[in-house]
Amino acid sequence: MNKGIKTIYKELLFQVVMMILLFLLVAFDKKHPHFHWEETFFLLNYFLMALIVNYFLLPRYYYKRKFGLFAVGFCMVVMLGIVIEEFVLEQIFFPESRGTAFYFLRSLLDVLPLILILVASKFVWDATVNQFKVEHMDRMMAESKLNYLKQQINPHFLFNNLNNLYSYAIENSPKTPQIILELSSLLRYMLYDCKENSVSLRKELEHLNSFIKLNELQLEGKGGVTYETDIESDFYIAPMILIVFVENAFKYSLASQTEEIYIDISVEMRDGRLKFYCENSFDDEVNLKDIAGGIGLQNVQSRLDLQYPDAYELKTHESENRYIVELLINLDRLQQ
Predict the structure, then answer these.
(1) In the chain, which ranges are continuous DSSP H helix?
(2) Same domain, 319 and 179
(3) On the chain, which terminus has fewer CB atoms closer than 10 Å, C or N?
(4) What's the CA gap between 215 and 219, in Å, rounded?
């Protein structure tokens, strides 16, 4: 059974339940517990009028913002219901009492409230279905945007490291085999482990460690890198979030300095909160605006907004030729 048919069945069940409730409300006498079965035919008249409004006037006029035509059609339906009640049903069931005269106001007060209740129930159903559709579309758009952002990361990362590999290969550097090995490990991680929205934090940190080793080869005695972590518990995290900040630390340090490069990276976990710290040196006398900005930082900010809404805090600032990134993510709230 496809999804559309299921929705129709659910709506039909909802409308039947509403009709049963109205039948119990109108036809059942609480003072003398029994049903007034003649009221069933009056209710069927109201149900028929409501069906015309719900499945003809609403979709054809109201939902298409043709409010004038809808109002005219609604008034005609109500008048039709009154005519059927006054000149057909009352003549059959109450010929000597209610059927002896035409009471427009009384009939209007009989017909209009019940039709409005049934029309309101249709409004509630349609609004609920539309809300689910909107939420589904929002999820689909968020997932599509997230996939797009993740696809951007891999070529961005690969492009930078292939450039490095090319430089070492041209120089016949003995470091080339090690670079290929580390790069192969990272590519394997991206291809097989980063397809999901979250990965094991331990794997992510192993990946981060390999990335640091890969980029540390570029320092060539120009400075040093420290990397500390004390993660023991196995939480989950969005893949390749932390790597963007480390990549930028190496990029801007190497671009602005020829010596005394300093990069300090630490990751710790406290009470389900991941604290990431990355500090790198740079020379503020060098114009770093000429460096290709890439998509890294904008990308990671968008991914954090999508995957950790109201569950992260990102701070970046400069201090005495140091660029500092502090990221706090509440991983305890958003586990698999």
Answers:
(1) 3-27, 38-52, 67-84, 90-93, 104-170, 176-192, 201-216, 242-256, 296-307
(2) yes
(3) N
(4) 8
Same domain, 217 and 272: yes
How many Cβ atoms sit within 10 Å of the Cβ of residue 57?
Answer: 21
Assess whether 260 and 307 both reside in one domain: yes
Q: CA dist 6 to 18, 121, 128, 130, 243, Å?
A: 19, 19, 15, 15, 45
Domain end point (choices 109, 135, 161)? 135
pTM, whole model, 2 decimals? 0.55
Has residue 294 got a pLDDT over 50? no
Residue 175 to residue 164: CA distance in whole angstroms: 11
* Sign of the four-CA dihedral 5, 9, 15, 19: positive
The CA-based angle 174-178-184, given to 5 degrees, is: 140
**Rounded distance between C-alpha atoms, residue 76 and residue 56, angstroms:** 13
Look up the domain containing 187 and give its range.
Answer: 174-330
pLDDT tens figures, 11-25: 778 777 877 777 777
Contact (Cβ atoms closer than 8 angstroms) between residue 135 and residue 28: no
Given 104, 135, 166, which residue is the final one in a domain? 135
180, 308: one domain? yes
Mark whether 182 and 303 lie in a shared domain: yes
| 96 and 35 assigned to the same domain | yes
Tell me which residue of 69, 336, 100, 70 sits closest to 200, measured CA to CA.
336
Q: What is the pLDDT of residues 73-95, one digit of tens each?
A: 999 999 998 888 888 888 888 87
Q: How many domains does the chain have?
A: 2
- pLDDT tens, 42-82? 888 888 998 899 889 998 999 888 999 999 999 999 999 88
182 and 323 share one domain: yes
Residue 148 has pLDDT above 70, yes or no: no
Task: Quickly tell me which residue has 């003809």 as its tokens.
Answer: 56
